[in-house]
Design goal:
Largest sheet: 10 strands, mixed
Strand content: 25-35%
Distance between the termini: 57 Å
Number of strands: 40
Shape: globular
Radius of gyration: 27 Å
């Protein structure tokens, strides 16, 4: 793959600039059978052969736990080789490995300079082969890209002279090189502006109509040396002016200096999250909308799920969920794509992964990322809040619901795609996480204490609180039980003896009930053990047990007895109605809330929450013009002001997890744990007039599963159902007994 190649770097510190590494070589005068280029970098690279770009991927080699492994991409370049002299040129920018990542500037968490390794293998028809590999004979030159950084943006000067800075020097990179594991990152949709206008502050702003991840391509003919300075933002302020204070220290500024000819500008080594651009400097008073395109960039996953209904606001919500996933499935599952973060937050990932696996085939995407989760897991079994572990500040914070990604994602991906090999690879990670919870804190079968994120951004501890009112101990111990139950299911699916963990689960469940519950209900409050860490604000200063989130977890995680369910569900509904038929849940409770209601006879209340338009609700953001999911329920307040500047992303996909309820309950399509990947399908739709009709489908390995229900005369509901060849289904219609179905199309 990289025969005879060694790591090289520049003889001169490139700083934030992108230097190019080049090698001229001659192809022998005999027929060429095949030519392949393998390459990787510390940083991100772009290869050119004879002046043409190699491949269509961007931001290679992607983002892995670099200290453990870096991917190598291999390209077929046979058609790009010509007889005689050829030139291979590879540019390298800072990327995630070297540039600003985490919080603040100068967080070079992998290296303080870029490095490159590459090998071009030429195989001839006579069976001979030769290799052009990176070494000290490669030349290094400057490029028009004077600076590039994931957070800060890119500066391109087409008037800057390109100079040779010397020959490459060997570098020492201590990591493991592996073939490409994840999906390629590619340019996807191209979006035209919907408006170009001047704000009340006379700012020249372009609106692409869609919040997204990627970058802007600009075509222009301007005088030589003319400057274009482009800032990015997600929303306008209440007065209609450009706004991006919520990007924190992420400058997100692209600067272009024109050549005087016909120029095409777009970033090479960075990306932005945005809907709007502010042209801070531009050589003309007006902008031709035809010269601009926003290019969406994300992992090249296959779209599998589709949904439409008769309610346009719910359709817009689904649109926002899809675009939130596109925006945050860029090689790793990130929290947001715009500010100085863009990290693989494990909590966001686990709550959304089921929805993600409905919308897209995410098997390969998560195979790569879960490999990094395993590599980053501590010897004790702890899973950090961010993978890859790019944080210096707060890097050791271990939290329930975040670390539980170790068990939740493998199980959900197995249900969706049925790959036992993937599940088997994850079993050690799952076991280590469960054992970590088992042996942390003062109690054997409870998780008490710890620096948890709690019910993040819930509304029940006050609007300005980051952590909700639900006891962190209750949340942590509930997830201890839940993850242990998933480990048992995973092991049994693989034919393993899980007696030890079944016993552990029973003990954890009983300990939870003994400590947190009394007379079938959660206790109102618990002893306050304020958890602090030097330099960090206290966490869990409010410990309540009777909250929407607490009741939801107890019901959905099966931590109650059957005879206790009616009272618990009724109490949950009471809390919802006391709050004006609105939820108060955050990142932990929200994904399960509607499920807890529908599983206990309150599907009507679940629909009421789904259709709620007042804050907090899913449709509040829709009614306020959102085109992606928001981080906070009221990121934009009714008066047009912002909830905060430091924690206020308008492209945060976690709350989009509601779609797994729409798909699995409203439309009624669920996979069977005993026959995963939709080999057997449980279909139990719950129609409601508020949707008008619902039409959902998913492309599986066997074909397309589809459920379409709609109302006819006299409130009769019609059902159209498609079951693909090679599968069976159990259909349960409202008020009817289950019916077993073979493959085919059905109409009820």
């Amino acid at each position: 793959m990289l025969k005879n190649a060694c790591w090289i770097t520049s003889p001169r510190d490139a700083g934030e600039a992108a230097y190019r590494y080049r090698k001229t070589f001659t192809v022998a005068g005999k027929p060429l059978k095949k030519a392949t280029l393998s390459a990787s970098s510390v940083g991100v690279y772009v290869a050119e052969l004879n002046g043409a770009r190699v491949g269509d991927a961007v931001l290679a080699p992607g983002w892995t736990s670099y200290k453990h492994r870096i991917q190598v991409q291999t390209y077929d370049v046979t058609d790009m080789i010509r007889a005689g002299k050829n030139q291979l040129s590879i540019g390298v920018g800072q990327g995630w490995a070297v540039g600003c990542i985490g919080y603040g500037r100068d967080n070079h968490y992998t290296a303080d300079h870029v490095s490159l390794i590459a090998a071009l293998t030429l195989t001839y028809t006579d069976g001979t082969a030769e290799t052009v590999a990176t070494g000290e004979d490669w030349e290094v030159e400057t490029s028009p890209i004077l600076s590039t950084d994931i957070y800060m943006g890119e500066t391109v000067d087409l008037t800057a002279p390109v100079k040779t800075v010397g020959h490459a020097v060997k570098d020492s990179v201590k990591t493991r090189l592996i073939p490409q594991v994840g999906e390629w990152i590619r340019e996807q949709e191209r979006i035209a502006p919907i408006a170009v206008f001047r704000t009340p502050k006379n700012e020249l702003v372009v609106d692409f109509g869609q919040n997204m991840t990627g970058y802007v391509e600009l075509k222009i003919h301007a005088p030589r040396g003319a400057r274009i300075v482009m800032h990015h933002g997600e929303v306008l302020d209440r007065d209609g002016n450009f706004y991006n204070a919520n990007y924190r220290s992420s400058k997100s500024e692209n600067v272009y200096i024109c050549s005087g000819d016909d120029d095409v500008f777009k970033p090479t080594y960075t990306f932005q999250g945005f809907r709007y651009i502010h042209l801070v400097e531009f050589p003309y008073d007006t902008v031709d909308p035809a010269s601009l395109r926003a290019i969406a960039v994300h992992s090249d996953m296959k779209r599998t799920g589709h949904f439409v209904c008769g309610n346009e606001k719910i359709n817009q919500l689904y649109h926002n969920i899809i675009w939130g996933q596109k925006s945050n499935y860029l090689d790793i599952p990130t929290d947001c794509p715009q500010r100085d973060e863009r990290l693989g937050w494990t909590g966001d990932t686990q709550v959304f992964c089921r929805t993600g696996a409905i919308n897209y085939n995410t098997a390969k995407f998560f195979r790569k990322w879960m490999g990094d989760v395993a590599l980053e897991q501590t010897p004790e079994g702890a899973v950090k809040g961010v993978v890859p572990a790019a944080l210096k500040r707060g890097d050791t914070r271990i939290s329930a619901a975040w670390g539980d990604v170790a068990c939740v994602v493998p199980w959900e991906i197995y249900l969706a795609f049925g790959d036992k090999a993937d599940l088997r690879r994850c079993i050690p990670t799952m076991k280590k996480w469960v054992e970590y919870m088992h042996h942390t804190g003062p109690a054997e079968f409870l998780w008490l204490g710890g620096m948890h994120y709690g019910d993040w951004l819930a509304m029940d501890a006050g609007e300005d609180s980051y952590v909700g009112a639900t006891s962190n101990d209750l949340i942590a111990s509930a997830f201890f039980a839940y993850s242990t139950s998933l480990l048992v299911k995973a092991g049994e699916a693989l034919g393993m003896d899980m007696t030890e963990y079944r016993t552990l689960y029973r003990n954890v469940r009983q300990a939870f009930r003994d400590y947190f519950m009394e007379n079938g209900m959660p206790k109102a409050e618990f002893p306050l053990t304020e958890v602090t860490r030097p330099g960090h604000a206290p966490v869990d200063t409010v410990r309540r047990g009777v909250t929407q989130t607490a009741l939801t977890l107890i019901l959905h995680f099966d931590l109650c007895e059957e005879n206790e369910r009616p009272a618990l569900a009724a109490k949950l509904v009471e809390l919802i109605r006391e709050n004006g038929n609105r939820m108060t849940t955050g990142f932990v409770g929200t994904p399960y809330l509607l499920h807890a209601l529908s599983e206990n006879g309150y599907t009507d209340v679940a629909y009421t929450l789904l259709m709620q338009e007042q804050n907090p609700s899913w449709l509040y953001s829709v009614c306020h013009g959102a085109t992606t999911m928001w981080e906070h329920w009221n990121s934009l307040k009714e008066d047009g002001s912002f909830w905060s500047t430091d924690m206020n992303s308008f492209n945060h996909y976690a709350y989009g997890a509601v779609f797994d309820w729409i798909f699995g309950v409203a439309c009624g399509i669920k996979t069977d744990p005993d026959a995963p990947a939709y080999r057997h399908i449980n279909i139990a739709p719950h129609p409601d007039r508020c949707l008008g009709f619902a039409d959902a489908s998913i492309d599986t390995a066997y074909g397309t599963v589809r459920v379409h229900w709609y109302y006819k005369e006299n409130d009769r509901v019609a059902y159209e159902i498609d079951i693909p060849n090679g599968t069976t289904a159990t259909l349960t219609l409202p008020g009817a007994a289950p019916v077993e179905l073979q493959a085919g199309s059905y109409l009820w």
